[in-house]
Specification:
The protein is α/β, with parallel strands linked by helices. The chain is built from 17 helices and 14 strands.
């Protein structure tokens, strides 16, 4: 570990993870594990490393903002797995690691002699996690995966946006991020099994499955009725009123997801007569007449500003909130109180900001210990810890098997 780095803390302290992943899904999984204390060694390809390093805009002093966001708390080595020396490095690393995380296409690492069976023979306790586009089995298993494509295949794009408009994806790369979360959960579950048995195993998830996992309410409706729901804008598919409404100066989200909240909303907007109106008396009736109800409420809500309504709704105990842009989110007092925006000192980019740790623990808190690594920054250090002599490391670098950074 570099002298500038804080020793890992958190519930996963001591867990060693090799991350052979790039862009979003795999690195987001690695970041979660690292935030919770795992030692994550990012094994980047040669030449160039993680493709995200070449996402030039936006950048800070030439360092990709996207790469820095997804790769804090990690050490990085650069290895050419197409060389015998590079493959030897990975095999030696796998012998001391607890987890290997990868997002190669099916068969790519097997052809290099670095698949699950080969590395399991070296280290039977190794947990080997694969994130692909469609999973490791089935007719689409060999296809590559991208978030946009997965959002379409999984049904997410069919339920996102406004009715009658062209298909639109969820604003964030939700299948990538959810695949990372599912992979992290799978790794932790496999680790619990290993603590009981001493045996590692293969963990397999995909962007497609991560997207399907997000369709729970709409899938429930389809399974019950045989009718596939379409896009509903900001409205809920099972409760009303529960959506975004216009105000005098913007928009506000209001959640009237039960009868009590609905009746409080009606009284607050000075429309108590709506409570006994047969069109809105029950949730089923409100859902059947949702568009009409939304228009009536919007007429009342346009009479005051967003902040005025927020004060009144909060005082009445009605769930409500602003629709923040990312800058407003990053300045929100609750966000800051929960340490969801943190400052880091990067060796090239200088002072930067990152998102914080979304899980809090009373006894073993995680944390952001260090910024994202530069390309090959820790190659020599990690190889020394694996028992390579300096002369061997120099020979590997001269042969093009590893890159030693700068």
């Amino acid at each position: 570990m570099s002298a500038a780095e804080t020793p890992p803390t958190g519930p996963l302290a001591g867990l060693v993870v090799l991350e052979l992943a790039q862009i979003m899904a795999g690195p987001s999984c690695g970041a979660l594990l690292a935030d919770l204390g795992a030692e994550v060694i990012k094994v980047e390809r040669m030449p160039g490393g993680d493709d995200t390093r070449r996402y030039a805009e936006p950048s800070v002093n030439g360092e990709s903002a996207a790469f820095m966001m997804m790769n804090r708390n990690k050490r990085a080595i650069a290895v050419d797995l197409k060389t015998e020396g590079g493959r030897g490095v990975l095999k030696r690393l796998s012998g001391r690691a607890d987890v290997l995380l990868e997002n190669f296409r099916r068969g790519a690492l097997d052809r290099m002699g670095l698949g699950y069976e080969a590395l399991h023979a070296i280290n039977p306790a190794l947990i080997y996690c694969s994130i692909t586009g469609y999973g490791r089995s089935g007719p689409a298993a060999d296809k590559g995966g991208f978030d946009l494509i997965a959002q379409g295949v999984s049904g997410l794009m069919s339920i996102t946006g406004e009715a009658g408009r062209p298909p639109v994806k969820v604003g964030s790369p939700v299948t990538d991020l959810n695949a990372g979360i599912l992979a992290a959960l799978g790794i932790v579950a496999a680790y619990v099994h290993r603590l009981k048995t001493g045996q590692g195993q293969f963990v397999d998830t995909s962007l497609m499955e991560a997207g399907i996992h997000q369709t729970a309410w709409q899938a429930a409706i389809y399974f019950a009725t045989g009718v596939a729901p379409g896009p509903g804008g900001s409205a809920h598919v099972l409760a009303a009123p529960y959506q975004a409404f216009p105000t005098a100066d913007g928009w506000i989200n209001i959640g009237g997801a039960n009868q009590g909240n609905w009746e409080r909303i009606a009284r607050l907007v000075d429309a108590p007569e709506l409570i006994d109106d047969a069109r809105f008396a029950t949730n089923s009736a409100r859902m059947a007449n949702r568009d009409e109800l939304a228009q009536l409420l919007a007429d009342h809500l346009r009479t005051r500003s967003t902040q005025e309504w927020l004060r009144l709704l909060d005082a009445a105990g009605i769930p409500a909130g602003p629709i923040n842009d990312i800058g407003q989110m990053a300045a929100d007092p609750q966000v800051l109180a929960r340490e969801m925006v943190v400052d880091l000192d990067h060796p090239v980019a200088g002072r930067t900001k990152a998102l914080g740790v979304p899980l809090k623990f009373s006894a073993t808190p995680g944390g952001i210990r260090c910024p994202s690594p530069t390309y090959g920054q820790h190659t020599r250090e990690v190889l020394q810890q694996c028992g390579y002599a300096d002369s061997e490391i120099t020979e590997l670098a001269a042969a093009g098997a590893v890159h030693l950074g700068r």
